[in-house]
Each structure stands twice: as C-alpha cells, then as structure tokens.
Specification:
alpha+beta
Length: 153
C-alpha cells in the first residue's frame, strides 16, 4: 500500500540534499552551467521556495511510504485562489521505479487535492525524463509548452 505522509522534520535535511543535487544536475546538463554554479543556483532557489522549511505556507512536503518503508518524496504547492496545485518535486528511489508506485502516488495526490477544492494540477517534466512523461500522459496530462534554451558563444 502506497501512502503520503507529512515529512518528518528529521528527514528534511536529506530531502534538501537530494533535491539540490538532482536539480543542480538538471541545471548543469540542460543549460551547460558549471557544477558549482548549478549547485549555487539550486541551493538558492530551494531556500527561496521553502524559507521556513516544512512550515512554509502553501507548500506540502510528503514522504512516500510503501507500508512502513520510505521510498521517496513529493513536494507540491497549493494555490487556493486559482484552485491549482503544482508539483515542485516528485522522487521515487530507483529500485522502486517502474512498479506502478508513481501512478499510485499521483492518483493519491489527485484525490487529496480534489477533497481540498483544487481543480487543476500542474507540473514540469525535465528534458529526457521519458518515464515521467509516459506516466503523466497515461494519466491524462497534456503537454502545455516547451522550455527552449540557446547558449551564445
């Protein structure tokens, strides 16, 4: 059974480290920045978005549990004003991927959001993350645009 639980404060530092590492890697590979600059940008962005850590208004950071075992995390933001939510980060450990858990997590989140009066869910899929793109497409999500980038010499 897959469930979403509010992340325990003791897990926050590991979540932060993992998020920044993954985000910095994405910035570096997609935009060609140095590892150092990518890490600095990812760190600053994280601190700006969660200035009060787990107590930042409108942000929900959940541990994904398979029974009692934590297998990932989900971070999303709710905007009651326009009845939308946005997934900031969704991570399942590699050894638990391609087992249907991602679909169960998203369906669980959708149900939770509907109960809160949220009517739309938005997200970003990083370039090259074909598994995530397949998952969201299968669940009825539509592509709304593309991010483009060009580096000048």
């Amino acid at each position: 059974m897959i469930s979403l639980f509010e992340m325990e404060p003791s897990c926050f530092d590991l979540f932060r480290e993992n998020f920044i590492r993954e985000y910095a890697g994405s910035i570096s590979s997609n935009y060609g920045y140095s590892e150092r600059k990518s890490f600095e940008f990812a760190s600053l962005d994280f601190e700006m978005r969660l200035p009060n850590k787990l107590d930042t208004d409108g942000n929900y950071v959940c541990s994904i549990k398979l029974g009692e075992l934590s297998i990932g995390h989900l971070w999303y933001i709710e905007s009651v004003e326009d009845s939308t939510a946005f997934i900031c980060d969704f991570f399942i450990e590699q050894k638990y991927r391609n087992s249907g858990y991602g679909e169960l997590v998203i369906k669980n989140l959708e149900s939770r959001l509907k109960q809160s009066g949220i009517t739309r869910l938005k997200l970003h899929v990083a370039n090259g993350n074909n598994g995530a793109l397949r998952l969201y497409t299968r669940l009825g999500y539509g592509i709304t645009g593309h991010n483009l980038f060009k580096k000048f010499d």
